[in-house]
């Protein structure tokens, strides 16, 4: 496979995954806030700031945000680099350059998705289309995941796409955790909640489509402790960071062909990072969640850079 | 002109007796070969066709089978319009076409070999020297070079029309980078999706075997010493109007689709940059014009090609398909010598007719052209895509003067031909929700390899969607039809 095309497929996977997380984060947070149990988390400004923080590292301030503008910027503003419409455009452009390698079924699904987003009426979106739009985006991404898994040859092409998908998933889940953690810190106490029992943990799990399964696993109301353990460390939770790292480690083997990867290779680094989190316990993480989040984002980034250097350098 | 029948979707179908109508004969009866199809289509209402037409359109759009049109401000994504009424060619008629286009492709290949070697046809005065010496498409670089397998025009696209006399005429031989074959396959798919039932009544040849034959052809022209050749398709990139076709062919052949930047040349061998390092490339099906192939030999600012590619080619380490330099023989002026070229190399009479042509470079013929501009089609010899053509009977007085002036200024640049009346075929027109006659042509695809040849049993029937328009090119608003070549019963 061509190095340039591999790079494009890697990013196709990343953009598809990113579009979904941003869409779901918008949907869950916006609608959860409507009947949130405390005043602050019900406030529209609070939610809009959270959305911007997750989508674009926006730092909170006292500046009044315009709801229509924020929602438009994140979803459909083509001039905005972090909008869903741009992610879908880029995913399709990347798919275009690899059209000979992917299945007609996958390409057609991406293309349909692109035209859906491109032609979504902005006015309809701003006047009550938020739910419909974001749900359709997440459903389209599910279709794409199915086409990737079900119609592609599980060879190097598949491995490259899955590396992109899983690295992005881990990154986005961490970003969502970071964002909701900051919300929980701000919103604590206003309804007699401690941080540990904040309503934001439930929202966080829903943002990662993991609420029901978390309830099934722990059989109790989510706390900071159980939520973070589930979303970071539980290898059986399909959205957990650990699961993504396991997937990354599985797919890199398609590219290395070596049982024991040499040092300075991507395979080696991935194994090292994976081992680090495999033997981590939540008690260690909880002490300083903020540093932990920064560390894991750095780790994920270093894997992406290593892959780029080893495979996509052309 | 009179009403042809009482089928509602054919309500506004007015047969023009001056033109050859593909489905109605001179007594307004449906020709035998179309009878079954016509009856089947009569079962559908105008509304059905409107619905099917929309379905076919969205199918093309969703599959991303689109081309880009460059407007003043933005690039628009457009589908190549597809018509629901297929064109049918019976086995006997097809045999003539197949033999004829193969004959032309072989003659052109022999002609190219001669032009780049001994030049006997010029020495013997059959083709004038100035036609070659003044051609921008003659490449001195490959003079005396033997291309692998002795093949220059591996892929030829021959454009044919049916004139009012009911005979086929060749309009053009395209042997640089002829495109359109992917649409042949898409049109078949689209028609099957929309009206699969009609296929039960006709035995049409498949068109999906093109890619495997193309791959076999590419493999026959591998460089010496290579066992299993590594073939690739090179494209100018995703913004090229034929990108869909490039990606389709690469996918269907199971080979890599590369861009110039994916390749490099070292010690006169060509490599592609893969995730596991450089990999040698042996055969390149190039969809880039000669002038962009190699910045060291041609346009120095071209970013589409590969520096050093021509040197590797001339060393015989890589095969380029079609060979560089084929453009000299698909010049519209060379076309007029095709009957002589066929006779000279193959010692055969041309199977397919050539349109009689007047060379403006010859003083007496120029004089005739100047006097008869209103009855002739005047074409520049070196423009593709239907640009720069003037059709005599469509011109105003001032425009005719304009053409005369241009011809006098630059006679070598132009040829003229009688106005051929392209045959018409029923075509679904959205505005009237009816089938109306529209002009069609036919592009066939011929492959030549070392000891292997193949003609795709089918072709691209292009249709001029505007009433009365004779220019069928997609860049000028043409559409296309599925084309059935029937099996012998």
TrEMBL record, chain A:
Q: Which residues form the DUF403 domain?
A: 1-312
> Which residue windows are transmembrane per the record?
none
Q: What InterPro entries does the record tag this protein with?
A: ATP-dep_Glu-Cys_Ligase-2, DUF403
The source's domain of life comes to Bacteria
Q: Which PANTHER family match?
A: BLR5612 PROTEIN (PTHR34595), SLL1039 PROTEIN (PTHR34595:SF7)
What protein is this chain from? Alpha-E domain-containing protein
Automatic annotation (TrEMBL), chain B:
Q: Which SUPFAM superfamilies match?
A: Glutathione synthetase ATP-binding domain-like
- The residues covered by the Circularly permuted ATP-grasp type domain are 86-464
User: Could you tell me which Pfam families the record lists for this protein?
Assistant: CP_ATPgrasp_2
Q: Which intervals of the chain form a coiled coil?
A: none
User: What InterPro entries does its record include?
Assistant: ATP-dep_Glu-Cys_Ligase-2 (IPR051680), CP_ATPgrasp_2 (IPR025841), UCP005522 (IPR016450)
Name of the protein in question: Circularly permuted type 2 ATP-grasp protein
